[in-house]
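Dear support,

I submitted the protein below through the web form. The confirmation email said the job was done, but the results page showed an empty box. After a refresh the structure appeared. I'm attaching both so you can tell me whether what I see now is the final result or a partial one.
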Amino acid sequence: MPDTDSVAGPAQTPVGVWAGFVCHDDQSDPYVISFAPDGTIALRTGVTVGTGTWAAGRDQGHFSYDLVETYTPASGHAGQVEAHVEARFEQSAHTGTGTARIRTPDGVLVHATTAEFAGERIADEPAVWHGVVSLGAAIRGRALHPGDHGFEEASSGWLLTVGHRPAAVVVAADADDVAAAVRFAATANLPVAVESTGHGRSVPADGAVFVATGGLRELSVDARAGTARIGAGLRWGEVAAAAAEHGLAPLCGSSAEVGVMGFLTGGGLPLTCRTHGFAADHVRSMDLVTADGRIRTVSPTQDPDLFWAVRGGRSNFGVVTAAEIDLVPLRSVFAGELFYPGEDPAHAAHVMRSYLTWAKDQPDEMSSSVSLLRFRNAPQVPEPYRGRSFVLVHIVHAGDEERGARLVEPLRALGPETDTCATRPYARLTEIHHDPKHPVSMHFRSALLSELDDTAVATLVSFIDPATPEGPFQGLELRHLGGAVSRPPRRPHAAGARDAAFHLWMRMPAPAEEADTVRRAADEVLARLRPWDTGALLPGFLFDHDADPERVRRAYAEPDHRRLTELKATYDPHNLFRINHNIPPVLDGA
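What the results page shows now:
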């Protein structure tokens, strides 16, 4: 360890970051090395990462250090390099002479050499990756640190209103990489954040080991069994395309770009929810890395409690690396959208009331939603919608297509301005929702509502009334529930709230300069709808605003939340998985 005088500042010690080259055996290799005031070292080269200690010499400017470097799996080599270096520095220059011994993984010496080191100081403080550099020695994929090429891209999310400053990003190549990252985080006492496709991370991952599973792209369809096995890096559009080749379909939501695992662990409200229930109802098994670094397969017969918790418990119980799901025999559907002009509040209210009456009488095969839209009068809005208001109805009929067309006739009789309802391949079903395909700056809110009366209709229509001042409001969607959603699933899970009539989802543009205004507007909308708010939420629709523990609690029935906290205490007692809408570990009420 350095003595007290030697760590007075960067001018007297090697503390900081140095970049340079080491010359040995007629070759020259680049390196970056970080010296910390506590006498520790962290090193990165193109093929190794190293840790060790340094000590000041008796003469000013002289110091020595010892390193153990480990070859990264991506290097194609195995084993370790032991190095001892006698060095000196003068202002920003660092030179040294050392010995290096290369050993096999079982410790056999295979080569010894001398080396010359030369570098320049590039920072006066230890590297931000100083404490996590050894993570790269354990994984086959990539360990990225702040400042590395690709770090910002790998750690950024789809929701641009939430920023992330993780300690490190692990771009996993396989489930073993995920397990190694979790074990490292547990040892280093760092939280774990997980992202599959970049679409759902809405809680800042500051200081975490950020595990990116987008490279886990296993996909196979068993047409005879009617199942698919899916890696954590896949999105629903890819799964739907593969299943369609066999006349089958996965239960996905309104966007083909959403990652499968985030959808399933949130419960998953599919477009055919009234016909098939939650997507989590149809999960057969999941491969999961838990806080102890173990890779487990959970199912109704293997760790059934954990299988129950992870479907609905989001990322609180581990990192899902793969899942096996049921597919449904659905090659095409009768589906589309009906746009009704909404500038006249009386007409908008008539369409809303007519839709609500129509929806009550629909069979389970008919799933639908109604949206209230108010477009800004801005150049980026397409001309047909610019400055206008609409009532928009989406329908998806998963039964006989001719019957679906007959069922929609009362809606068509209301005189929509645009009607796209038609038979279409299931694999292209999400196109009717026009969800964004690229990252967005949006503020999202949700609620579960009871049956809506005329007063509720008047309140809803007022949000798109052109007579009211234009604000950040863009629209809200009311998804009709009931049917299979209201019935107990064959494979129980933590997502519930089966007695609500509608799910409300609100989307509002939220550029940084308008963030506070947008949040206040969202609060006002929900406050005015409070008489019909059941107080519950769906776990799959928790966003940045919902990280508060009391809002997370509202996403579960009280007995289910209590069970989840107890299971959390069993499987993640130190709350390693807390960069999320967190369920804390609680045992026996403590």
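Response: this is the final, complete result; the empty box was a page-load delay. The CA atoms of residues 221 and 228 lie 4 Å apart.
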